Amino acid sequence: MAGRNPDRGVSVSTVLARRLGGELLRMREMWGLRQAHAAEALSASVAKVAKMERGLVPIRDPDIRALCHLYGETAEPVIARLLTLARTDRERRKARGWWNQYPQLSAMVEYVALEDIATNIRTWQLAVVPGLLQTTDYARALAVGNGHWEDPDEIEPFVDSRMARQARLHGEAPLELWAVVHEAALRQLVGGREVMRAQLGHLLDMARRPNVKLQVLPYLAGAHPGMTSAFTIVSFAEPGALDVVHVDTTSSTVWLESDTDADHHNGLFDRITRLGLAGQNSVRLIDAILKET
């Protein structure tokens, strides 16, 4: 369900809005102010302020500036970052992105919308090639192997939507992608040998792109800090400023949005990358696996 006008009373929480609301909440509490003080500054109800702080409604730029003034925040970089958060959240709520033509993306719609406006993505994958680097045949084989489709005719639109996501890696101001993939994902015969050979060749091609950094974590690395789960860190501005972490489980999508969670996963990603092969060595290993496949 898309977000509606906040003045009409809405209960749609989004990742970006929760992050923005949480920052405004911390600023208010730091000054020892109550929601009633914020409501007075905005000429609004306490209920509206509560919804803003819980990420349930989009927030207008004038309201952010008014609250920053009330909370004594004068640093333009801080204000600009909050305004960027609010703007990207409002754009996401308009639900006008290309992804809306694919009902098959319903479970991933918030992630794809965020991916579409991100500036940087870092992903660690244990068992599969990252979606942004998959070939059509590989994505189709994964969908078929997943086996959860009630209607097989939904598979092709799903595959098309995955390919559409990859447009962010091309054109002006392309997405910066840093992907670390476990060697196991490269040796798993998804779709058979021909499909995997094409997929491995595609990885070699993508690794040559200036906005794609690809590393392989080899079996020889042994025990490593990423053994328990895969995850993706999505950034929207300067490093660390707006990071949110996306974790897919077998039954749900989990968003980790606190500074503590972001710091933890940034540190985790850094440790994994240090164990991974350097760029050229990763390419050599992928090429060796391709020749063996």
Write the layout of secondary structure elements.
Blueprint: H1 15-30, H2 35-42, H3 46-53, H4 61-70, H5 76-93, H6 109-117, E1 120-125, H7 136-146, H8 155-165, E2 176-182, H9 183-187, H10 193-206, E3 212-217, E4 231-235, E5 244-248, E6 253-256, H11 259-275, H12 279-292
Parallel strand pairs: 1-2, 2-3
Antiparallel strand pairs: 1-4, 4-5, 5-6
Helix pairs in contact: 1-5, 2-3, 4-5, 7-8, 10-12
CATH class of the largest domain: Alpha Beta
Q: How many helix segments?
A: 12
Question: What's the total number of strands?
Answer: 6
Instruction: Please tell me the overall pLDDT.
Output: 84
Shape label? elongated
- Low-confidence stretches are 1-11
Structural class: alpha/beta
Name the beta content range.
Answer: 5-15%
Distance between the termini: 45 Å
- What's the SSE pattern? HHHHHHEHHEHHEEEEHH
Query: Biggest sheet: strands side by side, in what order?
Result: 3-2-1-4-5-6
Overview of this structure, please?
This protein has 293 residues and is α/β, with parallel strands linked by helices. The chain contains 12 helices and 6 strands. The chain has a 6-stranded mixed β-sheet, sandwiched between helices. Helix 4 packs antiparallel against helix 5, helix 7 packs across helix 8 and helix 10 (193-206) packs antiparallel against helix 12. The radius of gyration is 21 Å and the shape is elongated.
